[in-house]
């Protein structure tokens, strides 16, 4: 099965998500895509993330973080910083190993602050995981 075959049935969902991300609300938006494994959630998120209007015209910074069942806050922070550092460099990536988790979280926040950003957090298996990383993402009142 080709990826386009999977997405064909999700075109309406893709349009809904893109319109929500481009919406008028200035508040931080959290869009959840949930359901059983194998229904195309990651594919839908990837199509949204790669959409031209989203990628090049609506957000200043984009990051993709995969959680999976082996959750470690540090890995999430490092993965986010790798994506962010390609677009807004404030610290050399070599310095990340010397930093503790709170310093990494602070760096993520500083790089996202005052910028319109989209962070896809893929493959979360529990709400506890989301609750533990939610505070990393600042609400800048700028449609992030």
Descriptive labels:
mainly alpha, globular, ATP binding, 7 helices, disordered N terminus, P-loop_NTPase, 46% helix, 144 residues, ADP binding
Folded structure, characterized:
- With 144 residues, the protein is mostly helical.
- It has one domain.
- Helix content is 46%, strand content 8%.
- The chain has seven helices and two strands, in the order H-H-H-H-E-H-H-E-H.
- A two-stranded parallel sheet has the order 1-2.
- Helix 2 packs across helix 3 and helix 5 runs parallel beside helix 6.
- The longest helix has 13 residues.
- The radius of gyration is 15 Å and the shape is globular.
- The N terminus is likely disordered.
- Keywords: ATP-binding, Nucleotide-binding, Plant defense.
- It holds the Pfam family NB-ARC.
- Belongs to the disease resistance NB-LRR family.
Tell me the layout of helices and strands.
Blueprint: H1 3-8, H2 11-21, H3 41-50, H4 52-58, E1 61-66, H5 73-85, H6 101-112, E2 117-122, H7 127-133
Parallel strand pairs: 1-2
